[in-house]
Amino acid sequence: MKAIVLAAGEGTRIRPLSASVPKPMLPVADRPLVAHTVDAAIDAGADEIVLVVGYEHETVQAHFGSSHRGVPVSYARQTEQAGTAHAVNTARRHIDGEFAVLNGDNLYEPAAIERLFEARPAVCAVEVASPRNYGVLSTADGTVTDIVEKPADPPTNLANAGAYAFPADAKEWLEVPASERGEHEITDVLSRVIDEFSVTPITTKRWMDVGRPWELLEANEWKLQTLEPRIDGEVSDTAVLEGTVVVEDGATVNSGVTIEGPALIRSGASVGPNAYVRGATLIDEGASVGHAVEVKNSVLSAGATVGHLSYVGDSVLGRDVNFGAGTTVANLRHDDDDVRFTVKGERVSTGRRKFGVVAGDGVKTGINTSLTPGLKLETGATTVPGEVVDRDREP
Ligand code: TTP
Q: Which UniProt keywords apply (predicted)?
C-alpha cells in the first residue's frame, strides 16, 4: 500500500523555528519529525511513500531523495495550502489502489500504524480528556459510525489521530467542498468512507500533534526515551553517563561532564569540559555545549553553541544560535503559573510549569544576558551584554 504523508505546511504556529525549514523537518531525536512518520509507514509495510510538499520543499526532498530505506519516495507539490483533502488530491496521480494518509507533523506509535495497515479500511483514534477540540469518532460493534469536528457535546472521547487507511474508491471522493474554515478537509473524505465501508477504529495510547514550540520539546521527550543507549563517539574516562544516552560517531564528550539521559549527542557535537546535561536533551549535529554549562530538557539544533558558564532549561535553540558566556534562561515563574508564549500574536498558556525560551536560527546573546520564561527571540535577534530580556525580541 502507498502511504501519502502530508508535509506541505510551514508551521506558522511554531515560528520562528520554521523560518528556513518546514515544521516537519524540525529535529525530533535522531531524525526530522516527518521521518518518524515515514519510518512508521515503512515498518508497517508501505511499498511507496508519496510526500506532499510545499513550503521549503527542497529541504524535504534533499533529506529523502528518491528512496528511503529501500522504499521508493515520490513527491507531489501543493502550491496553495487549501486543506488536507486538497493535499491528498495533489498526489492523486500516484494513487492506484488502497492508500494510507498520515500527517507529517504527527508522532504516532509505530505499532498503531502497523495495526492500521492490517485492519484497512481503518482510522487511528486516541482517547483524550477534552475531545471538544478534536474530530470525534463514534463507534458501534467495532466499526466507526461517524466523525464530528469539534463537537460541543462530544459523543465519545475518541479523537481522530490523523492516520487513515483508505479503500481505492476514496480516490474518487477527494474533491470535497470547503469547510467552514475554508479548507478542503480529509475528514470529509473519511465521512464518505464511513458511510460506504466498514471502517475499523485503531486505538493508540500515545499520539502527538506537533504544532507549537513546546510540543517540539515534548516530541523530543517522547522519542529520546525510545533510543537504545549507544556510545560510538569519543567519551572521556572522567565523564559520567547515566540512563539512556547516545553519543554518535564523531561526537565528543569531554572530561568532567555528567549526562543524565535520555540524551542524544549527535555527530560533530561536543559537550564539556565540566558540563551538565540532563532531562530529555538533544544536542544536534555540530552543536556545542562548553565549559560549566548546564543544559536541561532542551533542544540545541544543528550548529548551536552555548559556550561557557550558561544555563539553558526547557528551551529550543534554532540552528547556529550562539549564547554568550553567562547567558541564563529562567524557566519558572515566581507565581508558579504555567508559562505563556506568543503564538501568532496571541499570548497562550503552554500548559507547562517549566518552559524557557525559543530562539530562532542565528540568534546571538551578549555575555550575561538574562532571559525570562516564555520568551521568543526571532531569527537573527541579538542582545547586548548584561541585558535582561523580558519581552519577545525582533531581529
Ligand atoms: P496543520 O498543522 O493544520 O498546518 P501547518 O502544518 O501548516 O501548521 P500551522 O497551522 O502552524 O501553520 O497541518 C496538518 C498537516 O497537514 C501538516 O503535516 C501539514 C499538512 N497540510 C498540507 O500538507 N496541506 C494543507 O493544505 C494543509 C492544511 C495541511
A: Acyltransferase, Multifunctional enzyme, Nucleotidyltransferase, Transferase
- Atom 28, ligand 1: residue with shortest CA distance: 83
Confidence of residue 280 (pLDDT cuts 50, 70, 90): very high
Cα–Cα dist 353/339, whole Å: 6
> Rounded to the nearest 5°, which phi and psi values hold at 339?
-75, 140
367 in Cβ contact with 325 (< 8 Å): yes
Mean pLDDT calculated for residue range 68-73: 98
Q: Contact 124/108 with Cβ under 8 angstroms? A: yes
Q: Give CA 283 to chain center in angstroms.
A: 16
CA dist 220 and 217 (Å) reads: 5
Q: Report whether 316 contacts 299 (CB < 8 A).
A: yes
Determine whether 36 is an active site residue: no
Percent share of the chain, pLDDT over 90: 98
CA atoms within 13 A on the CB side of 131: 22
**Spacing of C-alpha 158 from chain mean position:** 22
Which amino acid makes up residue 68? H
How many A from CA of 380 to the centre of ligand 1?
25
Domains of the chain: 2-211 (3.90.550.10), 222-389 (2.160.10.10)
**Cα 178 to averaged position of ligand 1 atoms, centre (Å):** 15
- Place 395 in a pLDDT band, splitting at 50, 70 and 90: confident
Strands 276-278 and 299-300: unpaired
User: Which residues 6+ apart lie within 8 Å of 78 measured at CB?
Assistant: 8, 52, 53, 54, 86, 87, 90
Task: Report the C-alpha gap between 165 and 53 in whole angstroms.
Answer: 20
Split at pLDDT 50, 70, 90, the class of 394 is confident
Question: Band of the pLDDT at 215, cuts 50, 70, 90?
Answer: very high
Q: How far apart are CA 172 and CA 183, in angstroms?
A: 18
Contact 184 CB / ligand 1 (< 6 Å): no
Give CA–CA dist 84/190, Å, rounded. Answer: 11
Measure CA of the first residue to CA of the last residue in the chain; give whole Å: 46
d(CA 24, CA 192): 28
CB 2 within 8 A of CB 47: yes
